[in-house]
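Render Agenet and bromo-adjacent homology (BAH) domain-containing protein-like in 3D.
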Amino acid sequence: MALKERLVSSSETTSCEERYVSYEEVFLSTDKGRREVRYYLKKKNGGSDLALIGKEKSSRHMSYHYAIRKSSLAPFFKLKSRREVLDWLDSIVQGQFFS
């Protein structure tokens, strides 16, 4: 299944219909053989937003970068591990960052 990537700016707002209900982890391999992982937040309406990109630095280490910049999803802190990434995504799906 191909997902449309969309970077989200902080000027976009999240309504009740756009709340995220799940996330998807997609593993890729680059031309140089390095691993890359992309995390998509899935909306209730069926759409999705690219939230994070993880790139392999070495065989045991990944660096994670935010692709989404919604102020309602703040705080944006440095994610150092897959566990931290999944915890952040879970908190968004559970609605912790929405008023």
